[in-house]
Amino acid sequence: MGWFRAPAVVLLLAIVVYPLFRSVQLSFESYSPLLPGRTGQWVGLENYRHLTHDPALRGAIVRVAVFTFCAVVLEFTFGRIVALLLSSIANGRRLVTSLMIIPMVLTPVVIGLSFALLLNPQFGALNYLLKHLGLGFATNALNSPHKALPALIAVDVWQWTPFMALLLFAGMQALPHDPLEAAQVDGASKLSSFWFVMVPMLRPVVVVAILFRAAEAVREFDKVFVLTGGGPGNATEVTDLYTYRQSFTVFDLSYGASIGMVVFLATLLAGGVFFALVRRGGRIA
What we know:
The chain is an all-alpha fold. It has 14 helices and two strands. It has a two-stranded antiparallel ribbon. α3 packs antiparallel against α11, α8 runs antiparallel to α11 (203-218) and α9 packs antiparallel against α10 (190-201).
């Protein structure tokens, strides 16, 4: 049976282990295929010292933090509302939940291209609709330094709100009915029952949903690259896009590798927190 595992082990070494090892090595070197004098000299922690003083990287971190926070909060808020609406639907629930999966299974590139057409200032259908609804401030969003990031957040909310809704709905369906019935017997309203009875019992599901989406949102790249390319200027340049530009536009592979390693370690740390919270049933303290 060991020989049957060999192809999978070779593939894992080729696409995961070696690139990771090479990235670690590059982050301590000075290498570029185009820049003169950068042939792989050992520089130690110089790349990491450079990124601590890089204002463009700090700006990208701030933008991705704003993007992640706003997107996850909105997705959780709207997802909770949709989950409550789903729980009140008696007929056609399977059809509705099936349709809700569509935004999640679409690739980010397809979503980016679709919204690029919808928000086009000349012939975009969504842009035209917003303008005729009197929401002129929302039009031409992708070309505005102040509107581009909110537009990207809105696209991400459209794509991932169903994920939050379905997770919360599944958690609500698995809850015991006795506490809710006892609250109703005591005269609690539906809103009070939801906030003071259902939400505490949903805490493990809520923690998993929020941490999972936050870990994904921090690594946003595809939709940003397709919709704005990080512009206008650098108004939507997030960390993954900045890393891509350093590695494959500036061709400073060593500096790009050092940024990638920092993001990788931060993701590992977030993953450790995620699994620790799951093991503790969603309890933070």
